[in-house]
Specification:
Blueprint lengths: L10 E5 L6 H8 L2 E4 L3 E5 L17 E3 L7 E2 L2 E10 L2 E8 L2 E9 L7 E5 L5 E3 L2 E9 L5 E9 L4 E9 L10 H18 L1
Parallel strand pairs: 1-9, 3-11
Antiparallel strand pairs: 2-3, 4-6, 5-6, 6-7, 7-8, 8-13, 10-11, 11-12, 12-13
Length: 192
């Protein structure tokens, strides 16, 4: 079953929960709450929150050359994965442990489309509406911040690993997470 019209024009399109049928609305809202602090609180299965270090074991991972050091928001660029000529992942961390991943997709050049749920747009990156979420999983201290921002040509997705305190609060404040995310997106915009 398609969520949206497959024949719709390509590009970025904002849709609202009200435009979706009940089945899709239920699917999208499952285990999701809008947190008044400015993010979506999402409970996900444990396999969705894992170590970003697994990316380094991919056969297409290209580690940074020895001596080449790029640091963004205190995180060192560990390497990249070029998924296609229009899609690239950047892996960042401290010294060898990955703690952030940035995916840049020039979806317009690929003839792709992205539907953005307007009800979930809770942040802004350089004037472009974005969706920030904090994913947690039962029985684990691991969590991940995730931001998706889509302009009229490029999609940026940032994942930051974090840990929860005993009070179930992330160690990074919202301000800290957004500052890191903004710096990573700014880095990507300069690369492309």
């Amino acid at each position: 079953m398609l969520m949206f019209d497959d024949n719709a024009p390509r590009g970025r399109k904002e849709v609202s929960l009200a435009t979706m049928n009940a089945e899709w609305r239920k699917f999208i809202l499952k285990d999701t709450q809008i947190d008044k602090r400015g993010f979506l609180a999402v409970v996900v299965p444990a396999q969705f929150i894992g170590s970003l270090d697994a990316v380094k074991s991919a056969h297409v991972f290209m580690p940074m050359q020895a001596g080449a050091s790029t640091v963004v928001a205190g995180l060192t660029l560990l390497g990249t994965v070029e998924e296609s000529k229009n899609r690239k992942e950047y892996l960042f961390g401290r010294p060898v442990t990955a703690s952030a991943m940035l995916t840049v997709w020039k979806y317009k050049e690929d003839g792709g489309s992205i539907n953005v749920v307007s009800d979930f747009l809770n942040q802004s990156i350089d004037g472009t509406p974005a969706t920030l979420s904090l994913a947690t999983t039962p029985n684990s201290k691991q969590c991940q911040w995730k931001l998706g921002v889509v302009d009229d040509k490029v999609s940026y997705e940032v994942v930051l690993t974090d840990t929860l305190s005993d009070k179930h609060e992330p160690s990074m404040t919202l301000t800290q997470a957004l500052a890191t995310i903004h710096a990573l997106v700014s880095f990507a915009k300069k690369q492309n």
